[in-house]
Structures are given as structure tokens and as C-alpha cells.
Amino acid sequence: MVETVVSVGLAVQEHLKIRKQVIRPLTPSGAEKRFCVVTGIHGDELEGQYVCYELIRRIRERMEDLKGVVELYPALNPLGLDSITRGVPGFDLDMNHTFPGEAQTSMPEHVAHKIVMDLAGADLCLDLHASNIFLREIPQVRMSAETADHLLPYARKLNVDFVWVYEAATVLESTLAHSLNAMGVPTLVVEMGVGMRITEHYVFQLVDGIFALMKEMGIWEGETVKPKEPIVSRDGEVGFVNAGRPGIFVPCVQHWINVEKGELIGRILNPLEGTVEEEVFSPLKGLLFTLREYPVVSPGSLLARVLGGDYR
């Protein structure tokens, strides 16, 4: 059943509507757990759209195995999705910096408030993101150090490759995940793929993990995969690789491989002079889990992230 979370009037008698798909068991008891999946906060992130579709498709094929309530919010920022804009068009802001919002204020704050209130009381929420158009990310869960003890058991069931635990100081309190966790709704942030694209095998990998997690929670009784054991970085060193020169970045390595300290990762080229402006090397030995996708770079542009350690 499709339900409207919030409807806001726009110019020329138009409306912004945020809607969700609610799937309930065939024979509800009234005591079901509630599992929520939200995505589309950023209008250039499309991986979550396919995840929602695939979840609905698989659940409807085996409705007899559903024992809880599943709610899917595929487009929290519909204006951004429609215009392929990362933020909220017309307001020049990142929607994920507006939570928990306020009821009587600007349109984005009002919408954020309604979303949070609608998600209140859920037993678990997944906040799905892709990367931006510049970077490719492996399927991963990100969480703050202060929530890690509580959230890690859920993250281990999601069939992702990597769990990155941030220091609490780096977590923005205005994000949806932080607001929900502060309200007592366990919320995991999933990041994967690249902006404006869909990486199908990442989607299938995560959807398999979501069903495994729902089975662990007693929401799903069908067959599921055995989730892969993710690499968990609590205190591991992460090396950031940034461009020193402008130009066109061409990587020399594949994404999601082990690299040695000092290994060549890529080159920044000058297409006007036909020269190599800069050779880029790994700052440490470890796992390359982020790699530049968009080739045009300026000084300071992020090119890669490397998780320090031996993962061979």
C-alpha cells in the first residue's frame, strides 16, 4: 500500500509529495516488527531506487514468508531526483543537513520533521546512499563510534564488504541517521556505487544482505544467503589521496584491491601539453576502498582512500 508521508504546496497549485510503500504480512498479529528503508535524500544517488524495487519484487513473490512490516521510502528528495540535483532545488542546501527539522519553518525543515516523525518507533532503519558523481565506493556501512557497539551486529548481517566506524567528532548531528539514532531508532548508513549510476551487482549484494538481516530480526522466514563477513575498521588508519595538480586523473589500479605503500595509483595528465602533471602514490599499505570515478580534478580533489593493514 502506498501512503503519503508529507504533502507540501508548491507554486502554480503543484505539490511536493513524499510517499512510502508499506508491505504488511498476509496474516498480521498486531505485534510485528517494523523495518524501514529510506533513500533518495540526495538527488544524484540512484542505487537506492533499484534496491527499493528489488526488495518489493522479491517480497511480493514470497508474501507468505513476510512476518513483519516493511516500509520503503524511495525518494526523500523528489525535487532533487527529478532535476538530477544533489541538494534541494531552489533552497541551495543539502537535505541531509536539515534533520530533525521543525514543523513551522521552511519547506525543507518542515519536510525533514515530517519524515523523522513518520520513522519514529521503527525497530530498524537503513539509510541508503550512493557516492557522488566523483567517487566510486564499495558496499559499506558507516557509523559513529558512539553507536558502533549497538549497530555492528546489524551491519554484520548486511552482506557488505566493509564497515567504517567514524570518530564521533566527524559525524554531523544534522543527518537523518544521527537524528534517528538519538531518538532510539537504530539506523545504519549504507554507501555504495557512484552518483547518477546504478551498479547492479552491488544492488543484488545488498538486497541479499537485507533479507538476511530481516530473517535475523524475525521479519522474514524465507531462504537467505549467508552474509559475508565484512572488514570492520574501528581504529584503523585511513589514508586520503588528494590531487596536487589540476588535470585529468587516470587510475593505474582497480577499485577494491590491496596496494603497497608507495605503489602507483594513477597519473594526472595535462591534455594541452601532452605531459604528466603528477604521479599519485598510495600513502600506506592497505585496501583501496574509494577510487576517483570522474577524471577532471583540481588541486585538493579526493582521488582515493586506503584502509591501512594487510588484507591479502
Automatic annotation (TrEMBL):
Keyword Hydrolase: yes
UniProt cofactor(s): Zn(2+)
Residue ranges constituting the Succinylglutamate desuccinylase/Aspartoacylase catalytic domain according to the UniProt record: 33-215
Alphabetical keyword list: Hydrolase, Metal-binding, Zinc
GO terms, molecular function: hydrolase activity, acting on ester bonds; metal ion binding
The keyword GTP-binding appears for this protein: no
Superkingdom of origin organism: Bacteria
PANTHER family: BLL3975 PROTEIN
Protein name: Succinylglutamate desuccinylase/Aspartoacylase catalytic domain-containing protein
Organism of origin: Enterocloster lavalensis
